[in-house]
Design goal:
The structure holds 2 protein chains of 2 kinds. Chain A is an alpha/beta fold. Chain A has helices at 16-29, 46-49, 61-65, 99-108, 112-125, 141-149, 161-177, 195-206, 218-223, 229-232, 237-250, and strands at residues 3-8, 33-38, 76-77, 89-93, 130-134, 152-157, 181-189, 210-215. In chain A, α1 packs across α11 and α5 (112-125) crosses α6 (141-149). Chain B is 40% helix and 15% strand. The relative contact order of chain B is 0.16. Classes of the chains: A alpha/beta, B alpha/beta.
């Protein structure tokens, strides 16, 4: 049975897209067929992590939402773009990076229900084991829909008071929408912090399980979204923890 | 930057229009419970704009007296109100009215607007009304791409001036090189390059860096940047 997993964060800059891309690569490296949808229409970018250039993007999710193409026409097999050969497959549905296309969504809107139909078509057409949804930070319509139809939700946060408060809002929304499984991922934790203490404090604050504590990694910053960290640094502690949380979300 | 301008004797208001992820009030130690009225209330016609403006000149956590004044107009952090703001939740032109009324009633020198991430109605609207736009990015491929889009939009909207700030540059990268690379990628000048600072992470957005670390290189750069913006 296939599984839909949403990845969300209340604020921008938490490492949401990076985490989504890494989880997808980890699962695909285990032989799974993984779909990744960029529903961050207002600030897209995950396609960069998969080495996709703007000019390769004949159709994007935006085109599907306006009825210009079928969902399979804006789906790209990016498996061969990865720095390391893997046994599974990654199918990416990118959002358009053209200013005019983004502005069109704002001006004209679209039928959010189409997103739901698109997700179902994707699962069936590409015979996916897992569909990962990268959302826009904060609360908006795409995010609410994605969370509502997901089997699992990963909420990314940094140990920062802006994130603390906002994550509370996200957790509340997810509970109201009845997501079966929810895990918090605490990212960019400074090395001086006591990880156990961070984990205890956060799991108690939200009454929600912490799926992973990811220490701040200079290597991640140096990579600067030009590739998938887990493939570049397979033995790094961040990769090991991402593997664990990826299996839990997909399991 | 708003606080630094107020320290420097200007009358400044800071407006949070990030309705989907409000958080600016946290830097000034304001909790959700203290916010009787917010910008949301103004947009819904529940209050006058001055009811949603909090004078925070005297409540900053570090004992610095401001020569000027600092007002915060927060966005509501209450979940039901965040949801109500989703598409169709208010008339966008009212944000323009709020800027106008704030400037007049509080006799402002500078009105600074904190926008949501990415391209959206609020951001477009704020850019269309601004005298100067500051775009902040990190040295990251995703940010280069998105910043390019925002600068393109600003140009189309005939914005008088756009400043680019490169933030969180890791120590292991040379700042001069990063500036050049960013300028090449964006085809736009970079006004400031700010290093990654562990002290900033330690503060964890619970207070203002510039007041806690008044002599830190980041604070000094922010001061220059703020002055540049105020002159525009």
């Amino acid at each position: 049975m296939s599984k839909i997993i949403s990845v969300h964060s209340f604020r921008g800059g938490t490492g949401k897209s990076n985490t989504t891309a890494n989880i997808s690569a980890i699962l695909a490296a285990e032989g799974k067929r993984v779909g990744v949808v960029d529903t961050d229409i207002q600030s897209p970018g995950i396609h960069i992590l998969f080495g996709m250039e703007d000019e390769d993007m004949e159709y994007a999710l935006n085109d599907y939402l306006w009825g210009r193409c079928g969902i399979e026409q804006c789906t790209y097999d990016v498996t061969s773009n990865l720095s390391t050969p893997i046994s599974g497959q990654i199918y990416l549905i990118p959002s358009s990076i053209k200013a005019g296309e983004i502005a069109k969504v704002l001006r004209e809107g679209y039928d959010v229900g189409l997103l739901n139909d698109g997700f179902e078509d994707l699962l069936a057409t590409f015979n996916l084991d897992v569909l990962l949804i990268d959302t826009h930070p904060g609360i908006n319509e795409e995010t609410l829909l994605s969370i509502a139809i997901s089997d699992a939700l990963a909420v990314i946060m940094r140990p920062d008071s802006q994130d603390y408060q906002g994550t509370g809002v996200t957790v509340e929304v997810a509970r109201k929408l009845g997501v079966p499984q929810m895990l918090l991922i605490v990212n960019k934790v400074p090395s001086v912090y006591d990880e156990e203490e961070v984990e205890t404090r956060i799991s108690e604050t939200y009454n929600c399980e912490v799926g992973a504590i990811l220490p701040h990694a200079d290597e991640m910053m140096a990579l600067a979204s030009s590739g998938i960290f887990a493939l570049h640094y397979p033995d790094h502690v961040v990769t090991k923890r991402l593997e664990k949380v990826a299996r839990r979300l997909a399991g | 930057m708003a606080t630094l301008l107020a320290v420097d004797s200007l009358r400044v208001a800071l407006v949070d229009i990030n309705f989907g992820a409000p958080a600016l009030h946290l830097f000034f130690g304001l909790t959700g419970g203290e916010l009787r009225f917010t910008l949301n209330d103004y947009l819904w016609g529940n209050c006058d704009i001055e009811d949603s403006a909090y004078d925070i000149s005297r409540r900053l956590r570090v004992g610095t007296d401001l020569a000027g004044s600092l007002y915060l107009v927060p966005a509501s952090p209450r979940y039901t109100e965040v949801r109500r703001m989703l598409r169709g939740g208010y008339f966008i032109e009212l944000i323009g009215d709020s800027f106008q009324e704030l400037s007049e009633k509080l006799d402002l020198d500078v009105l600074m607007v904190d926008t949501p991430t990415g391209l959206n109605e609020e951001t477009l609207f704020a850019i269309s009304r601004a005298d100067v736009l500051t775009v902040v990015l990190r040295p990251d491929q995703q940010d280069y791409l998105g910043t390019g889009v925002i600068l393109e939009v600003a140009e189309r909207l005939d914005l008088p001036r756009s400043l680019v700030v490169l933030n969180e540059v890791p120590d292991l990268l040379d700042r001069g090189t990063m500036r050049e690379r960013t300028e090449d990628s964006l085809q736009h000048a970079v006004t400031a390059v700010l290093p990654h600072a562990d002290e900033m992470l330690g503060l964890a957005s619970s207070a203002l860096f510039a007041l806690h670390y008044p002599e830190h290189p980041i604070t000094l750069s922010l001061k220059d940047l703020a002055a540049e913006i105020a002159r525009s």
